[in-house]
């Protein structure tokens, strides 16, 4: 199916575009009252994510309501541990929780490599339904967590400020750590390939906990596996977003991906210098800037756009949109990007 708006894909490949494409990380769910209405019709996040028709509906809401240039499939990075044999729960107001964790060789033996098509059939179905309903209006983004970020949740069993149990593992059990990271990587490659076969036009890897590792450990326990994923996925453009990994920007320029996501702590001009001209950069307005008034939002967005100007860029926030942001303020951000010359 020919896309009517393929700005995102052309910008990712480094082709010239009439204007800069814009979307928001975590645009599906979180901020829209229309999302909450659908969410209340089911038992919770997991049921919603596992009901393909509903997942497709909330995936498309931001395209209709906010006017973004891409949809991102409604799911979560934690579907991978579940498909490997480690189920999770989403605890209201607290976030993800794993009844069991993975901390020993015997825990490891209970896990399997996820195959994507069967183990995550509900996501694959949701992608196919979304593509049908989108009818070529905008590209659909598929995604997965980076192996290190998934490892951190599987070892820790929940979110954490320090992820000290996961980081302890890297120091005390490096061999075990590499085995688990490889299992996650193999599962992620299968999963991303299945998403692309089902219709995902571009895939993004979220390394949300990149910033808690030092530079040397980041190379060994994260970038090594992201490299494997980028090398294995040749069917669609790839974006790597490593939150807090300012120290790895130069290394990341060597990844075989088209786009690198910047968080809002990363200077735009400095990032371009470190990463070079051959990658598209995505980002990176401070998500808290959307708490400002309309004039402040316009000004902050224009300042950001001016710093990216003339180089390969996909506009976004520097992390996911915060849940209590007013959708009207998101629309101002989007419109300002669209009007920018
Ligand atoms: C670390 C991480 C997670 N999930 C994700 C990340 C990486 C991005 C980031 O750093 O923000 C990624 C994610 N999670 C979700 C999406 C859907 C698509 C999108 O809107 O971008 C995506 C891309 C839905 C979701 N994932 C979750 C919700 C809220 C569930 C609900 O409706 O109650 C949604 C819509 C739950 C979730 N899932 C996770 C946490 C910590 C939580 C609880 C807090 C929160 O809301 O962020 C893990």
Automatic annotation (TrEMBL):
Substrate binds at residues 26-30, 76, 153, 208, 319. It catalyses: uroporphyrinogen III + 4 H(+) = coproporphyrinogen III + 4 CO2. CDD domains: URO-D. Pathway: Porphyrin-containing compound metabolism; protoporphyrin-IX biosynthesis; coproporphyrinogen-III from 5-aminolevulinate: step 4/4. Residues 21-30, 141-157 form the Uroporphyrinogen decarboxylase (URO-D) domain. GO terms for cellular component: cytosol. It is an enzyme of class 4 (lyase). Its main location: cytoplasm. One of its GO terms (molecular function) is uroporphyrinogen decarboxylase activity. GO terms for biological process: protoporphyrinogen IX biosynthetic process. PROSITE patterns: UROD_1, UROD_2. Gene3D superfamilies: 3.20.20.210. It is found in: Cytoplasm. The record marks 76 as: Transition state stabilizer. Keywords: Cytoplasm, Decarboxylase, Lyase, Porphyrin biosynthesis. It comes from the Bacteria. InterPro entries: UROD/MetE-like_sf, Uroporphyrinogen_deCO2ase_HemE, Uroporphyrinogen_deCOase. Its EC number is 4.1.1.37. Catalyzes the decarboxylation of four acetate groups of uroporphyrinogen-III to yield coproporphyrinogen-III. PANTHER family: METHYLTETRAHYDROFOLATE:HOMOCYSTEINE METHYLTRANSFERASE RELATED, UROPORPHYRINOGEN DECARBOXYLASE. NCBIfam families: hemE. Homodimer. Belongs to the uroporphyrinogen decarboxylase family. This is Uroporphyrinogen decarboxylase. It comes from Algoriphagus lacus. The lineage of its organism: Bacteria, Pseudomonadati, Bacteroidota, Cytophagia, Cytophagales. The gene is hemE.
